[in-house]
Amino acid sequence: MKKRALTVLVVLLSLMVFPAIVSAQEAEYVTKADLDGITTMLWLVVAGALVFLMQAGFAMVEVGLTRSKNAVNILMKNLMDFAVGALAFFAVGWGLMYGASSGGWFGTSEFFLNIPTEEWANKMRDWFFQVVFAATAATIVSGAVAERIKFGSYLIYSVFISAIVYPVAGHWIWNAEGFLAVKGFHDFAGSTVVHSVGGWAALVGAVVLGPRLGKYVKVDGKIISKAFPGHNLTLAALGVFILWFGWYGFNAGSTLNGSSADIGHIAVTTTLGASAGAVAAMILSWIWFKKPDVSMTMNGALAGLVSITAPTFAVSPTSAIIIGLIGGILVVLSVEFFDKVLHIDDPVGAISVHGICGVWGTLAVGLFAEPDRIRQGTAGLFMGGDATQLGVQALGVGMVFGWVVVTMGAVFLLLKAVKFLRVSKKEEQQGLDINEHGADAYHGFQIFSNM
Amino acid sequence: MKLITAYIQPHKLNDVKQKLFEAEIYKISVTNALGCGQQMGYTEKFRGVDIEVNLLKKIRIEIAVNDDFVKKTIKAIIDGAHTGEIGDGKIFITPLEEVVRIRTNETGTVAIG
Fold it and tell me: What is the dihedral of CA A10, A11, A16, A20, to 10 degrees?
């Protein structure tokens, strides 16, 4: 026993002395820049992997909130929009987004990852971190167009959003030379770049496709909205947890710097925003529908996350709670408004969660940004600033809305014109799984939907 | 009194319910069923390998009615479920000996409605 203790002591002592000898011999020190390089490489690849996991979150939320006869189709859509989108982002998307800017509107170089050797390592890291964001924007649409879009036309849409629509909007805001970036538009992790782009594409898709059969029924001259309950709320809840988990990569990774002292701050505001969103949506649904509604509350958590995505860096924890609370209330009102007033059929609430709360989060920067935290741009209206930042934020919101509606509108209308957009009535009634994929999600179980 | 049992395509259930409602028949029991007939089944694929599905998913509807409702009920089911394709289903009509309403102990034609 005594012998072993002695050995341990010798080993410990030599460990303490050894590094000193090495550094004295080589006289080589790790500089701050080296350390930043190492931590950033690790942080962005890990954070990117967290964001990738959000694909699973979207898949589970969407599959859970729709009917069992379309489960295979939803899973295929969520898998393939990433796969197809990653190839498109490699070929065209990255170049349009981060290539040399043409007047601040779109990039013109680095297509097919044609990158000089000296920038190789860092650009590979950055491409990986960006491709998962592009895929997040693309996959948002899947839920809104669920249960009626043809699989083939969804693949075509995926190519367009990942190759052109998302990268150009991203160029305006996240490329240092982008015209909105130059104006001081602040969207830290992508309330507008990612979520609004996906949300507006979802809106256009849902409008052009039209509602699912039997969703809006005319009774005595009045249109009534029917509920199609999701077939597995357990999976939907798992999806929300996965999304929330992945969001720590989404927001905190957007420091783009592994040695950043702000990572903790961002994790805190992200957590508080999401929690406040869930609480607000639960309370509102409790008062309005008499019961705390589960899927509305889950939408509320996601709404809080989307809302805090742009301001996560620039606002205080207290402001994050206010932003989340408003996001949670907005999402419930918005879901009801799109469903019961506009009669736009969005099975999972993607338009409200990502489109509407994306706008709110972006504008919230102009209201709540702390003067000492916002780097580009000016302090928010409620934090001693004036309306300048709010104006810039509103300009960006409007430009991105216009761009996405026009381009995605063209794609979806073209697909509709060639009769490739939507499955036939009978296919929709029988379910997309059996007709589009010849498969059954729950083989051997007596689960089937008659709605 | 008759017991009407019908097997229909699952995706036609809503149409049948609608037609029954229009014919003022407000009672129905529905069960998920598996079965086969002339339709002979179809093939699914799992990892490129064919699966012969010969027990098809069907919906079984049961409605117990008084004699004067039989024709109306059958017509409503046909109106809702008919497409003209193989697999539309069948309707079986069987005589019903007795009906008892558990709550009141009523029997016969009063208990049925």
Answer: 100
Q: What is the DSSP letter of B68?
A: G
Confirm if A70 and A86 have CB atoms less than 8 A apart. no
Check B11 against A443: CB less than 8 A apart.
no
**Which residue does chain B place closest to A438, by CA atoms?**
B44
CA distance A234 to chain B (A): 23
CB contact under 8 A, A450 and B45: no
First to last CA, chain A: 74
A440 CB neighbours in chain B (<8 A) are: 44
d(C-alpha A174, C-alpha A22), whole Å: 43
Buried (b) or exposed (e) across A230-269, using 16+ Cβ within 10 A?
Answer: bbbeebbbbbbebbbebbbbbbbbbbeebebebbebbeeb
Chain A closest CA to B14's CA: distance in Å?
A: 7
Q: Are B34 and B10 in contact (CB under 8 A)?
A: no
Of all residues in chain A, the one with the smallest CA distance to B60 is A450
Pick out chain A residues at pLDDT < 70: 1-3, 5-27, 446-451
Query: In a 3-state reduction of DSSP, which class is residue A258?
Result: coil
The partner residue sitting opposite A214, judged by closest CB among B10, B14, B57, is B14
Nearest CA in chain B to A426: B11
Q: State if pTM tops 0.90.
A: no
Cβ neighbours for A235, distance < 8 A, ≥ 6 positions apart = A60, A61, A63, A64
Give A434's contacts in chain B (Cβ within 8 Å).
44
Q: For Cα atoms A199, A429, A72, give the angle at the middle one, nearest 5 degrees.
A: 60
Q: Judge contact between A334 and A280, C-beta under 8 A.
A: no
Residue A161: both structure tokens together: 């959003």
Return the residue in A448, A450, A451 with the most chain B beta carbons within 10 A, the one to mutate for interface testing: A450
Contact A439 B46 (CB under 8 A): yes
DSSP bridge pairs for A107: A101
CB A347 within 8 A of CB A70: no
Look at residue B51 and give its three-state secondary structure. Answer: strand
pLDDT tens string, chain B, 113 residues long: the values are 999 999 999 889 989 999 999 999 999 999 988 888 777 777 777 777 777 777 788 899 999 999 999 999 999 999 999 999 888 999 999 999 999 999 999 998 888 87
